Amino acid sequence: MASLRNPKITMPVMAGVAERGRLFHRLDDASAQSPIVWVSAPAGSGKTTLAATWLTARRHRCVWYQIDARDADPAAFFYYLREAAAHVSSHRRATLPLLTAEYAQGLDAYARHFFERLGARLPRGAWIVLDDYQELAEAAPLQALLPGALSALADGTRVLVLSRAAPPPPFARLLAGGALALVGGDELALTTAETRALARVRTGTRIATSSLATLQNLTGGWLAGTLLLLESPELAQGSGPIFDRLEHQVLFDYFATELFDRAPPEAQRLLLATALLPEVDVASAEALTGDPGAGDILRELVRRNYFTLRLAGSEPHYRYHPLFRSFLMARARRSLDASQARANAERAAELLLAAGRADDAASILAREGSPARLAEVIRAHAPALARQGRLASIEGWLRALPRAMVEGDPWLSYWLGARRASASREARIHFERAYRLFRDRDDVAGMYAAWASLMRTFFYVWHEYEQIDRWMAELVDLRRRAPSFPSEDVETQVTFGVLAACMLRGVSPAEIAPWLERAAALVGSGASAQLRMRLALYLVMYWIGWRGDVARARDVLERARPLATSPDATPLTSLYWDAADAFLHGRAGDPAMSLAAVERGLEKARRTGIAALNPLFATSGTFAALAAGDIESARRYRRLSGEVAALEGTWIDSYHHALAAWVDLCGGDLQAADANARAALAAARRSGSGMAIATAEQPLALLHVDRGEVADALALLDRCVAWARANDSVLVLRAALLATAYARLAGGRVEEALVALEEGLRIGRERGLPPRHWACWRRDVMARLAALALERGVETDAAVELVRELRLAPPEEAPDSWPHPVRIRMLGAFEVWRDGQRVTFPRKVQRRPLE
Question: Minimal CB count within 10 Å: which of 114, 395, 417, 548?
Answer without folding.
Answer: 395
